Automatic annotation (TrEMBL), chains A, B, C, D, E, F:
The keyword Transcription regulation applies. SUPFAM superfamilies: Hut operon positive regulatory protein HutP (SSF111064). One of its GO terms (molecular function) is RNA binding. This is Hut operon positive regulatory protein. Belongs to the HutP family. Keywords: Activator, RNA-binding, Transcription, Transcription regulation. Homohexamer. Antiterminator that binds to cis-acting regulatory sequences on the mRNA in the presence of histidine, thereby suppressing transcription termination and activating the hut operon for histidine utilization.
């Protein structure tokens, strides 16, 4: 994580981190100038995943009350959900459920070129049937200009 | 990477690693019992990306000559490409190009339950217009039973 | 609208018209020989939008009780919904809502060639988050042979 | 059916058979070494169709309790549903309903090469509006390695 | 085939038939009042498959020179291709190839209700990597009002 | 057009206008404070349509050389292309061609709330088989924050 200087990788590494590493990674990213938040959500409803991420972003001040920042976030979430759903942005409707860790990171696309703000949404977790252990990993990354 | 005990995260971390870390991560994953290969590909043609990954897997012996292992790999690649393309599995046709690092990892879904073989394809890189610097990060993960 | 001689543009202009212009446009289209109806619907459920359009068409006699005319209408609606949903034909499931004005127009594809009946569905409105003002315009057009 | 030596055609012919032919076809397929089950399901919910097929497969022992066989079945079902939905894997959400006969067949891809196990899901039935007679035929076939 | 009284099943059975059965099935369908043609096509290009089917339909007089009948055929082909492609209507672009038998059948949806003309396109064949034997079965059915 | 105070409708009306009305509409929109350009493109290649629109926007100064404005434009084009393609963002690959008029409009979403910049891409034209007269109307609208 120390060498990580790009927005999307930062988002993915935080979403994939476990235990104490999560806070360590987030702190490291903040030190470099990224704004960061993260959280967890498990659901069979896509709209609950979107709502959890939007709520986290708003609560932590990563997006403001203006529509344009929320529009940027919404479409970054939809893009990340394409990696999650791989063909259909549906969960319960196609009899599957997901347990996710997500992150939202705001900053330049890379620390080499810091005069522009972008937004990344990272997702990492397990997707599968509603049967214990019947699941495999899944991830998603969405990037948008802010 | 030391703590990483799952197939998909292993594939993603290797695809996202840079410089000497790539070999270090691959070696660490092999020590745990995963079969691993990785490579790079840049193209405006989806079929060249698929071919590069299939060729790497075959050359390194991760899939054999039987159709079933190549079928498993093909669909894992397609799944990973959904995260990459986010809605269309197309590049040059929609005037975009990609520079990727990819990995293929074979092993159990998690080291806690080693009696079953699965396959993960990880992709990480830059997607964008065919103009220098006009690009952002992208990733994909596909998982299939072997 | 006076110069408009094609089916799809007629449908779009009526769907996009406001206030008294709606009736004026519809009357102008009927004078040229098009059958026209229109209406409004707001919902987070795609099926309610489909039902509202199908009901309007049936009530105004634009489609009859035979399945073939309703099949033509249904697929024209689905096509228009692709422009609305841009990738997913989903609303509430992906945490968005829509307020639409729609039109159904039946006639030749163009007044220059009147010996064939086609059907157009036009949609125009606002799509966005379930938060006041957090929305932008959206449109859709579906055309089918009758 | 006597000449049928391939997995997918076997699945389709059983799903399309009527009356006594269903059992005759299934018996003929079993004589050749295929494992077969079949059933009926009508619904506006995709998840009920998936559940009906998964339940039939499990009850008849075509898949065991391990995730890998259920993963193979799940993705074969999703593939077959693409033929059914033709663009959206949705039913009630887009105001349509389906009445299906389905089959699950396990065996080699073809009797000429019997050293490998694959799985086929066949679907055949009627799709349409929730109005009697307003429907047309639909089919789907999904094939996966087991 | 003798008992087959519906448009779509007729199309599928002809597309799936082999050897002399093809002509026998087509003749049986014509005796019942269906117009029928069929053919073969192998390609990595979706447009060649569409062209082969459109050419067969035109040559055999199943569609006339008017756009409406060709529009009906085109969208039935696209629908059938959804079953074939299962998520992407692409072949060579995603490094796969197809060998198909197809049929076009025109008539009522069912012989019980003969006062309406519909069109069915059936497809059956093998899809896979451009490596001998690395392929599995695939099918598609598209139905449209004429 | 006089009453038109919103970004997307402005884009659609300009794309749908004919003859002298095009310039009149564009001038009216510019008077209200919108930045506007428009053009024509006919092609069987999606990438040529994207390139034509991007080139027009750059030449007229609607987007600058920074990636963020070109990213906003690119995704607005892709969104508009969903209305055009209705399920597949493909033309020649699925044996169809398009003749389009397009517009790019920059400004507030509505004149009532002018403190924010958005971008709209409107498309209107004919889509069909590569046979004269075998085509019907099509439209698309994409909106993005700038
Ligand atoms: Mg939007
Ligand atoms: Mg396959
Ligand atoms: Mg239909
Ligand atoms: Mg899976
Ligand atoms: Mg059409
Ligand atoms: Mg982008």
């Amino acid at each position: 994580m120390e060498q990580c200087s790009s927005l999307g990788k930062t988002a993915l590494l935080i979403a994939m981190a476990e235990g104490e590493l999560i806070d360590t990674y987030a702190a490291s990213a903040r030190d470099k100038g990224f704004a960061v938040t993260y959280g967890k959500v498990g659901s069979m409803d896509i709209q609950k995943i979107i709502a959890a991420i939007e709520t986290a972003a708003r609560r932590e001040g990563l997006v403001d009350e203006r529509y344009r920042s929320q529009h940027a976030l919404y479409h970054a979430i939809l893009d990340a959900l394409q990696g999650l759903g791989r063909g259909q942005i549906q969960l319960g409707n196609v009899l599957r459920t997901v347990g996710l860790r997500f992150s939202i990171v705001i900053g330049p696309r890379t620390l080499k070129d810091t005069d522009d703000l972008w937004l990344a949404v990272g997702m990492y977790g397990m997707i599968g049937a509603p049967i214990k252990g019947h699941e495999h990993e899944v991830c998603g990354l969405g990037i948008n200009h802010l």
